[in-house]
Design goal:
The complex is a heterodimer of chains A (249) and B (309). With 249 residues, chain A is an alpha/beta fold. Helices cover 27% and strands 31% of the residues of chain A. In chain A, strands 9-8-7-10-6-1-4-5-11 form a 9-stranded mixed β-sheet, with helices on both faces. In chain A, strands 2-3 form a two-stranded antiparallel ribbon. In chain A, strand 8 and strand 9 form a beta hairpin. In chain A, helix 3 crosses helix 4. The radius of gyration of chain A is 21 Å and the shape is globular. The N and C termini of chain A lie far apart (58 Å). Chain B has 309 residues and is α/β, with parallel strands linked by helices. In chain B, strand 7 and strand 8 form a beta hairpin. In chain B, the strands form 3 sheets. Chain B has a 7-stranded parallel β-sheet with strand order 5-9-4-1-2-3-10, sandwiched between helices. In chain B, strands 13-12-14-15-16 form a 5-stranded parallel β-sheet. A 3-stranded antiparallel β-sheet of chain B has the order 6-7-8. Chain B contains 8 helices and 16 strands. The chains are: A alpha/beta (249), B alpha/beta (309). Strand 9 of chain A pairs antiparallel with strand 11 of chain B, so a sheet runs across the interface.
Chain lengths: 249, 309
């Protein structure tokens, strides 16, 4: 079966981001960018499905700027067969991205689409669910285990109280949680080979999708800073402070 | 202007975060209706009718909604939601699961995890793991929103007298089914709503050592959380994880034991009123946000703390 994996280019998770002085957003100039960690897990899961003989072809797709080709090359180096970049320099909302992905799904007809559960920049946690709704497919979000069995897939999900297992009819959408797997590293020979794999570029207009949005960001600010605390010398002092100064116990 | 709040429940009782979501609806203004969708959940609807400020409770009691499968919940909420200006749910794993589906079916953008309401169309939400706060304005005809519970003080669970109306609709998309679940059992308070949270990290070294935290927690009525490192190492189950990808907590007192304080962990707890860090590494980033820091060996300090508290 064919598997489609969506990946996003985001600020590297170790970067401490700074809000721009004019409060229009976060300063991304000269900041290290990487593949969103949840998307890496999605790619890894797809590659494992191929290694198990379940998947026959893996198509990686990204919606983003020209530079997102880097992340698609990474996905190819990790084992994806070909890539599609839906090129857009604007910052798009989840619904627009879901509509673009829906157009790609219509064209490619994958049996399974794997996405990360959220991007660590916008923290929306929406795209997979929206794509599922638009295609009318079932969804297995926050997956920590995925088992394809014929025409169905069993997904174990991380929920507030523990774990839940659902059975979905294929084609279906799965979004990954951190515990689904541990992504591999791309080896140098694979990185070299990835340069020869096909990467197709399309524009939102080519897909006939309007990317207009009803959400406007008015401002972006730094969160209220916590004032520096103190170090206490002993447990007695800590208990005393908590009881008499902070009055929390 | 009327807001539809989707009740968070387990078919037997209403979950407290619903009260925080109603508080967010109250901040938006206008009437508030609550939808209780589940199976055998009359008691939940009765409880929802008593919530302060609620005008009407819609009860959709049907096997299709027993486990709140998003394929069915999405169809139901999108159908009922057409008559509302705002649709709100708690940013729990349930709310996060079905609300984007509702938004896509209604062809509107969704706003995730708001932590403040500035007006009927303007909201504040954290981005970049809480390292920036975005103020967003929505011109969508129906505003579909999930609410971060720790951003809103709950409304009173008693005092209201709303009517309960049955919804006959039974939406079954027929593409998914519930197989089973494994719920962690605990007598301690629920993590997200606890007044005191004690969390352990990699420094705990193994699962048995968490007993020390449980003993301390039981003594002061606290919930026990964990960092991702502790969960990945198998010390504790994943539903105890606090952070960007786990639960967001904002208790009066948060005690971080053997936790270094990575960006992703801080995202889940830095709105706590008072933070205490116990760590042997005095350079650990957690000390930069802690109100009270204690440098030393947790295996000596925790038992001592337990005996003196």
């Amino acid at each position: 079966m064919k598997v489609l994996v969506a990946v996003k280019r985001v600020v590297d998770y170790n970067v401490k981001v700074r809000v721009k002085a004019d409060n229009t957003g976060v300063d991304l100039a000269n900041v290290k960018m990487s593949m969103n960690p949840f998307c890496e897990i999605a790619v890894e899961e797809a590659v494992r499905l191929k290694e198990k003989g379940v998947a026959t072809e893996i198509v990686a797709v990204s919606v983003g700027p020209t530079a997102a080709q880097e992340q698609l090359r990474t996905a190819l180096a990790l084992g994806c067969d070909r890539a599609i970049l839906v090129e857009s320099s604007e910052e798009l909302n989840s619904l627009a991205i879901a509509k673009l992905l829906k157009a790609v799904v219509d064209k490619e007809q994958p049996q399974l689409v794997i996405l990360g559960k959220q991007a660590i920049d916008s923290d929306n946690n929406q795209t997979g669910q929206m794509l599922a709704a638009l295609s009318g497919y079932a969804q297995g979000t926050f997956a920590s285990e995925v088992a394809v069995d014929g025409e169905r897939v069993k997904v174990t999900r991380e929920i507030d109280g523990g774990l839940q297992t659902v059975d979905l009819k294929l084609p279906a959408i799965v979004t990954t949680d951190l515990r689904l797997n541990e992504p591999r590293y791309a080896s140098l020979p694979n990185i070299m080979k990835a340069k020869k794999k096909p990467l197709e570029t399309v524009k939102p207009d080519d897909l006939g999708v309007s990317t207009s949005s009803t959400i406007k960001t008015l401002k972006v600010e730094s969160p209220a800073a916590r004032k520096g605390g103190i170090k206490v010398k002993s447990v007695d002092e800590l208990v005393d402070k908590l009881k008499n100064e902070a009055k929390v116990i | 202007m009327t807001t539809l709040v989707i009740a968070e429940h387990n078919n037997a009782e209403l979950i407290a975060s619903t009260l925080n979501t109603v508080a967010a609806a109250k901040a938006i203004g206008g009437d508030i209706d609550v939808l209780v969708a589940g199976e055998g959940c009359q008691a939940v609807a009765d409880a929802a009718a008593k919530i302060e400020g609620v005008s009407k409770v819609l009860l959709a009691d049907n096997a299709a909604y027993a486990h709140q499968l998003p394929e069915n919940m999405g169809l139901l909420i999108a159908e009922l939601g057409k008559n509302y200006s705002h649709i709100l749910a708690s940013a729990s794993t349930n709310g996060k699961n079905y609300m984007p589906r509702v938004a896509a079916l209604l062809d509107v953008d969704q706003i995730s995890e708001i932590s403040a309401v500035e007006g009927a169309d303007t909201f504040v939400r954290p981005i970049y793991a809480g390292n920036a706060m975005a103020t967003v304005q929505s011109s969508a005809s129906i505003k579909v929103i999930t609410v971060r519970s720790t951003g809103f003080d709950p409304v009173a669970a008693e005092g209201g007298s709303a009517s309960v109306e049955n919804v006959s609709s039974a939406q079954d998309a027929g593409v998914s089914s519930f197989v089973g679940e494994e719920l962690a059992k605990s007598d301690r308070p629920e993590l997200a709503g606890a007044k005191i949270v004690i969390s352990g990290g990699r420094g705990m070294q193994n699962g048995e050592n968490f007993e020390m935290l449980y003993k301390l927690a039981d003594k002061i009525g606290a919930a026990v959380g964990a960092s991702r490192a502790a969960v990945d190492a198998g010390f504790v189950p994943n539903d105890m994880q606090v952070g960007q990808t786990g639960k967001i907590v904002a208790p009066n007192l948060y005690v971080a034991v053997g936790i270094s304080g990575a960006i992703q962990h801080l995202a889940g707890m830095k709105d706590s009123k008072v933070i205490v860090a116990i760590n042997k590494d005095e350079e650990a980033p957690i000390f930069q946000v802690a109100d009270y820091g204690l440098v030393g060996d947790l295996f000596e300090l925790i038992p001592e703390l337990e005996s003196k508290i």
